[in-house]
Amino acid sequence: VAVGTMLTILVLAIVLGRMIRLAVAKNDQIRHAVFGAVALYLVAPFSIAYVWNDQNLGRLDVYMLLVALLALFVGLTIKNTYVKCVCYTVLGVVGLAIHQGFAFLYYPIVFSVMVYDVFEENRVHAGRFAAAFVSGLINVAVAVYFQFFSSIHFDSAKELVTFLEGRTNLTI
Hints:
172 residues
C-alpha cells in the first residue's frame, strides 16, 4: 500500500511538472492558466488531500489513478504513436483488472490522450487511427469481459474475507 501510494505521488509530481514545463516552453502567455489548472487539481475534492489520508489508504482508486497518471506520462514522453497505443492498451487492461470502474472513471483520460495523439497535426493519419481504434476496442472487450463474464471463486463473503486478511495487514 505504501509503495503504491509513494509511486503515485512520484508519478503525479513528474506528470504535473512536465505539463508545466511543456506549456511554458510552447507559450509563456499560458503559464498562469497551467499553474492555475495544476493548483485547482491539487485542491480538488479528489486530489492528494482526499485520496491519501488514513481513511482512504489502500483504496483501489489510488492504483487506478496511478495507471491513469502513467498513461499521461507515456503521452508526454514517448514519441512513437504506435508504441504509445500499445502502452495505452496495456495500461487500460491493467486499470480494468484493478477495478472495472476504471472504464468510466479514468479510461476517459487515457482515451483523450490517445485521441489527441491521433489528431495532433489537425489531420487524421490512417495508421495512427487504426492503432488507437484497436487499442480502444481491446479495452472495451476487456471491460465487457470483466463486467459480465468474470467471477469470484469464493463460496461466501466470510471465505473471501479470510483469504484477503491473509494477504494484507489492513483490517477488513
